[in-house]
């Protein structure tokens, strides 16, 4: 692939698939105003990563994914249940869950690192800041398979997912299982965040969920086009971030991916502004 070593090419393809999936799932999350929920899920997954690492006795991506997924589901449940059983507002519940879970994750990671059983930083930098270059080929296949499964589920439930995103109340009146679709979207958001952690990192993954979707919204009002543009931006930014990190290990892949996404957003914003100004001037002169 473009003269790159096989391992590097596979990693780039894997991270691009992660970015495309983030762009697709992020479009639904942004339109449903779940950006903060995504941030909470990303940070809440860290304790699960640590527990999976400890139980496996070292780096084991499958077990760490399982731990992160369960930890994320617990966070989602708490975010939804706290406003119902108390006077806590949703945004307050999100902020509280994010802080408590992330704090617990930092404590667990430090305890594991200082235990002397695993040595060094025990590989947690990859989950904090993203390090796709450290992934094994089997790990990339696992991540890619999870991303493909997520996209397939979205494709199979596309009409219901779009309907719940734009008018859940109407579909509920029609007797459709909107609550199940709502939970399915949360599960897919959790899955996408979890599988993206090794490539992008806990700190940066939420930006890859939000920024491509927001950028795509500047280019089109049609939902299908927004999905495609968002997926393209996510894939491109992730691949560039991984490539930069592979060329210079001092560059965190997650941070560079976010910077590329942000650059795309700023360029799109400027183009949209000048296009709108030109259109207004043309309308006035005519």
UniProtKB/TrEMBL annotation:
It is found in: Cell membrane. One of its GO terms (biological process) is transmembrane transport. The chain crosses the membrane at residues 6-31, 62-82, 94-112, 142-166, 186-211, 223-245, 251-271. InterPro entries: ABC_BtuC-like, ABC_TroCD. It is a multi-pass membrane protein. It comes from the Bacteria. GO terms for cellular component: ATP-binding cassette (ABC) transporter complex. Its main location: membrane. This is High-affinity zinc uptake system membrane protein ZnuB. It comes from Rubinisphaera italica. The gene is znuB.
